[in-house]
Predict the structure.
Amino acid sequence: MRKDVRILLVGEPKVGKTSLIMSLVSEEFPDEVPLRAEEITIPADVTPERVPTHIVDYSEAEQTDEQLYQEISKANVICIVYSVNNKKSIEKVTSHWIPLISDRTDKDSRVPLILVGNKSDLVEHSSMETILPIMNQYQDIETCVECSAKNLKNISELFYYAQKAVLHPTGPLYCPEEKELKPSCIKALTRIFKISDLDNDGVLNDNELNFFQRTCFNTPLAPQALEDVKNVVRRNMADGVRDDGLTLKGFLFLHTLFIQRGRHETTWTVLRRFGYDDDLELTQEYLFPLIKVPPDCTTELNHNAYLFLQSVFDKHDKDRDCALSPEEVKDLFNVFPYMPWGPDVNNTVCTNDEGWITYQGYLSQWTLTTYLDVQRSLEYLGYLGYSIICEQESQAAAITVTRNKRIDLQKKQTQRSVFRCNVLGARGSGKSGFLQAFLGRNLQRQMRIREDHKSYYAISTTYVYGQEKYLLLHEVMPDFDILSEPDLSCDVVCLVYDINDPRSFEYCAKVYKECFLDSKTPCVVVAAKSDLHEVRQQYSQSPLDFCRKHKLHPPQPFTCNTNEAPSKDLYTRLTTMAMHPSGRPSRSLLSLAHGGVTSLCRLTPRLLAREVPCVCVEVACCMLHDRAALAKRTGKHF
C-alpha cells in the first residue's frame, strides 16, 4: 500500500475547487476565497485509511500550463471539478480535461479520476443523468460525487473516495463493461484460494475459511456468518458451494460482489495480505525479504520450514505413494508464475522406479536450492504462501544462517546439516557416474539419462552417528585453468580418476598440488570403474604412493557397474570427513591404515584411551573394509 496520497483538483475557473478544500479544512464555508489554496497535508491519524494525504489546488489565474503539467505528473488521483448548474463546465470535462490528463500521464501507470459536481445546493435536480454516459465512456473514472462546498454536503466523502481510488483502485480488479473480474485479478485470487485450500480438495471448508478470515482480517467468522456467506453464494451460483465448502467459483463470485457493491477495500486487503501490489504483481519485499549471509556461512532450512514443505508435499501427493507424479508436480507449482523445476531435477535427487520425485528427493531439492541460492528459495516459499500459512513475518523465518566455518574448525564441531563435496576429475573419469550412484542408480539405470537432462549436482541424505545429514555433490568441470572460487570452496573434495585410463590420475595430482595442498579441506581420492582392469598410471608416482606422501587416505575403489544400487559407504565417509575436518587421521593412523588391520587393532585401545576423535578410527576402519574383525578384537563397535 502507498505511504501517502496526493490529490489534485482541476477544473474550469469559478467551479469551486478552492472552496471545497477550504470547507474541508475549516469545516465551514469561507467568507473570502483566494484564487488558489496552498497545498495542505492531512495527517494519517485523521484519515479513514490512516495514510497522510496531500491536497493540491490548481488556479488558471496563478499557474502556468507547465506548472499544471508538473502537478498532473505527480498526482495519485485527480478530481475534475464542474459546477452542476453550469453546462459548459460539464462539457469541458470531456472536451478538455480528460484528454489533457491522458496526454500528460504515463499510459502504463493509470491515474484514477473522480468527477466532482459542486454547487449542488443551487439546483434541485441531479447531474448524474448527464455524467453517467461519460463514466461509461472513460474507464479511468472511478466515481462521481455531487457535493456542496457551501453547506458542506459530501465534502469529507469526496476526499475519502479520492483516497480510496488510490489505495483501493477498481481498475486492476474489475471490468465494468463486462461486469466481471479482470484476468489478472482472477489469477491472483485463484492462487490465494489454492494456498488457503489446505487439504487440496477444491473447496474451502469452515476451518479453512476461518483461517483465511483470521489471516486477512484478524478475526474469525461466527458460525452463522459463515452460513450466511455460503447461502449468498448458493442463491447466486449453482456450483459455488460443494460439500458445504466454498468452491473457487464461489470464492471469485464473492469478490465480484464486494467490488460491485463498492467494497473494493475488502478484496484489496486480501490481495495485499498475500503479497500483491497495485498492479497485482507480488512485491519484491514479499518475495525477497532481507536476509544477511556473512562470508563463510551457509543457508539451510529450519525445522519449521521442513514441516511446512512436508505439508505441501502431503497436500499434493494425492495417491499417497510418497512420490510426486508429473501431474502432481504441476499441481503443486500451479501457484507459481513459472515452472521452477526442470527435467534435470530428476537427475539431481532420488526418484522411484517410475522416475517420479520421492519425498526424500523433494526435500533434497529444496535443501539444494536453499544452500546454493537462498534468494530463489525465499521466492519459492513466497509463492507457496509460507509466511501466511505459518503466520510468520516473512519467508526469512524459514532460513537458518549457519555460523562461520572458521568457528566450527576452532570448536571442532558443527551444527550444520548440509555439506558440500566438490567432485573433480579428468573428462571420462567417472564423475557423473559417481554422482548418480549416490542417488541409488547403477550403471544400467544411468544409461537411460538423456544428455540434455544431465545435472551437475546430486543431493541426498546420509547418516553419521545416527544423525541425518545432507551431502551435496557438485561435479566440477575439468577445465583446470578456469576453476573458480565456488569450484574450490567446499567441505570435502573428491578427486576421481579412471583406473583403466593411464592418463587419468595426472589431473587429480595436478589439481591437488595446485589447489588443495595447503588447504584444510579434507580430500579423498576415488579410484573409479574399479570393476575394470587397473592399468599403470602415467605419472611420476602411483596413486597409492601419492596419497602416502601427502598423508591422504589410500585411493578408494568405486564402481557403479553393479546389479543392485551402489553402496553408500563411501558417501557416508565423505560426510563424516566434512563434519569433522579437524578429525583427519593422524600420521600414525594413516600409516596403520596402509599397513594392515593387525597393527590397527593393537593400537586401537590406546587410541580410545587417549580420546582420539572416533571419526579417525571409523575412517581408517572403513578403508580396511574390516569393521567386524575390529569389533571382535577390541570389543568396541563403531
Notes: The first strand starts at residue 5 and ends at 11. Residues 476 and 487 are 6 Å apart (CA to CA). The two ends are 60 Å apart (CA to CA).
